[in-house]
Design a protein that fits this description.
Distance between the termini: 44 Å
Order of helices and strands: EEEHEEEEEEHEEHEHHHEH
Strand content: 15-25%
Shape: globular
Largest sheet: 6 strands, antiparallel
Strand order of the largest sheet: 9-8-7-6-12-13
Helix content: 25-40%
Number of helices: 7
Structural class: alpha+beta
Length: about 290
């Protein structure tokens, strides 16, 4: 079956999950399908494929599932504010990422998390194998025998995600900006003492928020300010709304509520730290844009 995408209905019989394909065939019988998928998508249309990573319990390639929804061919940019993870102090202010035609650019203090991912892996990876939280601590952990638990399963299972959708941008131009940023990061000499970290990371000018902010400024948007994820999110909405006519874009805001599973506590909205952004938020409330 390889890495082929299967489309069908997530089903279960006698406590055993499987997928009934649109051709009537059963797929992934007697294989590990994560319980979180069954909680939210049982008897619903889904897509599925295998990942290169293996499940620790069975040794088989991990199966990833995601909703089977029709995608538009129209160029789309989505700017994300991910609510904070309450069990990680480093997540105190939440997180930003940006999607360009479904490819999600993620920037981080960890080298291996500076990447462009498919939307299904960003949102819907299962809490199995290396993606799961440690069964001992419930968090990120590397056990003595070397087994890793990165606690990096699908973001939408870990937290609520606020989505600012922008239609009408030159997506090739914007992609080239962020591809260049990834090249810069991965070509930066590492610190031998902390080779797993991005040496030039800075919350003030080289973070998940500021790299995205500066990329939008390079594209042509003006007056975008902020270094913290939610403050930047509100600032971007406010200023892009003011520039939407001259920049010829359409704007839309929506929310992806957290898909609750036992592996993750409920996420929390971070407060706006800037008084100006609090005022901007109230102004956006009045016009129904937040």
């Amino acid at each position: 079956m390889g890495n082929e995408i299967i489309k069908g209905v997530l089903s279960e019989s006698d406590g055993k999950p499987f997928i009934i394909g649109k051709n009537g065939m059963k797929y992934f019988e007697n294989r590990m399908i994560w319980s979180g998928y069954l909680t939210h998508w049982l008897n619903k249309n889904i897509c599925a494929r295998t990942l290169p990573q293996t499940d620790y319990e069975t040794g088989n390639p991990i199966i990833i599932l995601w909703p089977d929804v029709q995608k538009t061919a129209e160029p789309i940019v989505e700017f994300y504010y991910n609510e904070r993870l309450v069990k990680y102090p480093a997540s105190l202010f939440g997180h930003n990422a940006i999607s360009i035609n479904g490819g999600i650019y993620n920037f981080s203090h960890l080298i291996n998390e500076n990447e462009m991912m498919t939307s299904e892996e960003y949102f819907y990876r299962p809490a199995l194998g290396e993606f799961a939280p440690s069964p001992q601590s419930g968090k990120f952990e590397i056990l003595e025998e070397g087994r890793v638990y990165y606690d990096k399963f699908g973001r939408n299972f870990m937290r609520t995600i606020h989505v600012f959708r922008i239609k009408g941008m030159d997506t090739e131009k914007l992609s080239s900006i962020y591809n260049h940023e990834l090249d810069v990061i991965h070509n930066t000499p590492v610190n031998p003492k902390t080779p797993e970290k991005y040496k030039d990371f800075s919350i003030f000018n080289r973070s998940c928020s500021t790299i995205i902010r500066d990329g939008l400024i390079k594209y042509g948007f003006k007056n975008l300010k902020g270094i913290l994820p939610r403050d930047l999110f509100v600032n971007v909405i406010y200023n892009m709304n003011k520039q939407k006519v001259v920049m010829d874009v359409e704007l839309e805001l929506c929310t992806m509520p957290q898909l609750k599973v036992p592996e993750a506590p409920k996420s929390v909205v971070t407060p706006l730290m800037s008084l100006k952004n609090r005022k901007r938020y109230k102004a956006l409330e009045k016009i129904g844009l937040v």
